[in-house]
Each structure stands twice: as C-alpha cells, then as structure tokens.
Design the sequence.
C-alpha cells in the first residue's frame, strides 16, 4: 500500500482520491477548507490537509512523506506546482492543463530521477494514449479528436455546465487553437470552423476549434494532419462569441464608479453561478477519436474510438470527473506498479506507445464502466 497525495479537492480531485483510497493511503490537499470537509464527509478514510501550493518550501516539505503526487490544481497554478513537485523528487501525474509547455521540465525531471506523466485526463489524456499506441502499429496520416462534457438537461441560454472553474473553460474559448494541416502548423482563433456532428444517444452537437493538441505538436511531428475540436450543444458557440466580441473576456481592467475590475473576472463570477454543476446533476462525456493511416503493407486503415459516459448514480460521481480522473489514477498505478518507470516528463502518447500501458489503462477504465468502443476498417 503506497502513500499518495492529491493536490486539489475539486470535483475531479475528489473523485481521484476516492478511487485511489481503495488500494492506497491517500491524503487530499487543498486551500479550500469547504472542499476538504465535503470530501471527508464522503470518505472518512481519506486524510485531508489545508495547503497553499504557491508556498514552495512548505509544499516540498509536505511532499516528502509520499510515494506519488497527483496534481489537480487550477491551470494558472499548474506549471509552477509541477516544477516544485519535480524539485521535491516525487513521481507525479498531472491534470492541471496549464498553458505552458510541460516538456520544458523534462531535463529537470531527469536530473531529479522523477517520472512525470502530464496532461493525463480524457482529452488531452486518453486520446493521446490511443494515438500513441496506434502510432506504433501503422503509419498515421490523420488524427482527429472530438470531445465534450455536457449536461443532460439543457438550460437556456448556454446549455452548458462546467465540472471545473469557468475561468478554465473561458481559456478554451480565448486561447488560439493550433492544429496541423498538410504538415503545417495552423493557428486560428478558438471557436472557429464550426461543424454540426451527429452522435448516438446525444444527437446533433457543434464542434469548434480549440487548442487541445498541446504536446502532440511536438511529439508527433511526422503526422501530417492533426486536429482537436470541442463539442457543445447547438447554439452555445453563438452566445460565447457574443460575450467574446463584446469584451466580456478582456483582461484589461476598466473603471466603474471608481472601482477597477477586469471584465474576465466579472464574467467568471457571473458564469460560476450559471455554469455550476451540482454534485448530483446528471451530465455526460462524449468523445470520438478517428485515426487514419497505412499498415506495413501499404493498405489504408481507419481506427475509430467512441466514448459515451454518464454520471454514475451508484458512486454519485460526474462523468467528467470519472473520465478525466480515472485516466490519471490508472496512470498513477502504472507508475506504482512499475509498469512505466522511465524518467522525465511524458505526455500520455509516450506512455500509450507501450502495449502493456495501453492495455492496463483500457482495462482499468473498463472495470469502472468507462468503455471505449473501437471499430477498425
């Protein structure tokens, strides 16, 4: 039984702690005492501590008592927190999805003899694992990931609920989207190239460009076409575009009646209530991964993975927490079981390339009723 600390006790962080405590000694750490109390009420076997991850020396000292760290802090804290964990010489699985390039910490991780698996959620995360595996099997020409987390009940005007902070969702809508087309890196505004796509059990959804390729741009430069798009219910994008074009996502402060406030902070506060996902509110995750290429005989091959997952009534766990969190806890067990022990910073595609890791993660998720259906042609 290993000792694990989960930094972050939000919806996903709590789900990971509860999943891991079945087989390990788990401590959950967060600055928000209410989140910790809520988790403790759900599962008394989890130890909770209040912590400010920005206090570097304090964090390094706390981490010394643990075998592995899972980092589930907000994106704006992610890079520096991961750096501190590596400097503390602790193996880590990270889902903070910060905007910086995690590969910049690769040399530091090697120097400190640390295994760090980053971007380890559903997408980025599981999609990367699937791509990494098939990249060893065929010569890939095309990769497309369509993914979204959606409420089961649509509520006008946004038809959306966020399992994490609205500020992290807004980042998806404002960060320029990068994709690869004909071996060239293309950068476009987020929310562009809107298409309507049909999905079983869900119906018609909108897809739009978002900056989800992340590490794949650097680790898979040989693939000529790669794209990731986010999914929402029809109509959502138009309302977001109205907010964006009207300046509600601007960061520069404006003065109102003698008080300075940034529009994005105001918007975040308003949307926090509008988008708040209640603990028992049913939602779903839908994902479609399409991989095209040629086998060693030069024959064309297409592999499609479909995921449809819902809020789990039995455990009262959101689908986004399950699909994101359990990919990370599966990866944590890869490290703890010595199935993956290379030193450095590894995006999931560099883990999934190993068949033993690919098989382990898919089986781990299947046991938790998260099933990726694969079709080959």
Sequence:
């Amino acid at each position: 039984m290993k000792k694990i600390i989960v930094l972050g006790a939000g919806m996903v962080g709590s789900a990971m702690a509860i999943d891991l405590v079945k087989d390990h000694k788990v401590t959950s750490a967060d600055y928000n005492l209410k989140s910790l109390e809520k988790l403790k009420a759900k599962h008394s076997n989890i130890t909770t501590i209040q912590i400010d991850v920005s206090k570097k020396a304090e964090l390094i000292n706390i981490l010394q008592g643990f075998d592995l760290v899972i980092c589930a802090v907000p994106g704006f804290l992610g890079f520096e927190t991961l750096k501190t964990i590596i400097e503390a010489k602790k193996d880590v699985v990270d889902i903070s999805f910060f905007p910086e390039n995690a590969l910049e910490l690769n040399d530091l991780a090697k120097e400190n003899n640390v295994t760090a698996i980053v971007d380890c959620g559903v997408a980025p995360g599981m999609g990367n694992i699937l791509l990494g595996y098939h990249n060893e099997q065929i010569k890939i020409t095309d990769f497309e990931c369509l993914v979204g987390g959606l409420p089961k009940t649509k509520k006008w005007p946004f038809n959306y609920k966020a399992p994490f902070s609205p500020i992290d969702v807004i980042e998806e809508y404002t960060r320029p989207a990068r994709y690869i087309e004909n071996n060239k890196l293309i950068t476009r505004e987020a929310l562009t190239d809107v298409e309507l796509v049909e999905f079983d059990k869900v119906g018609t959804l909108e897809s739009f460009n978002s900056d989800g390729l992340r590490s794949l741009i650097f680790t898979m430069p040989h693939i000529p076409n790669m794209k990731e798009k986010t999914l929402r219910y029809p109509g959502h994008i138009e309302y977001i575009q109205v907010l964006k074009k009207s300046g509600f996502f601007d960061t520069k402060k404006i003065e109102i009646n003698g008080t300075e406030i940034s529009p994005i902070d105001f918007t975040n506060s308003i949307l926090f209530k509008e988008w708040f996902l209640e603990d028992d509110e049913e939602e779903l995750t839908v994902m479609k991964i399409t991989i095209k290429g040629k086998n060693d005989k030069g024959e064309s091959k297409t592999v499609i993975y479909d995921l449809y997952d819902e809020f789990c009534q039995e455990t009262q766990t959101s689908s986004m927490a399950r699909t994101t969190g359990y990919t990370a806890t599966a990866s944590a067990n890869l490290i703890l079981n010595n199935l993956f022990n290379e030193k450095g910073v590894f995006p999931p595609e560099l883990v999934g390339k190993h068949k033993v890791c690919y098989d382990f993660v898919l089986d781990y998720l299947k046991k938790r009723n998260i099933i990726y259906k694969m079709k080959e042609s």
Remarks:
- The chain is about 35% helix and 30% strand.
- The chain has two domains: 3-121+319-372, 126-310.
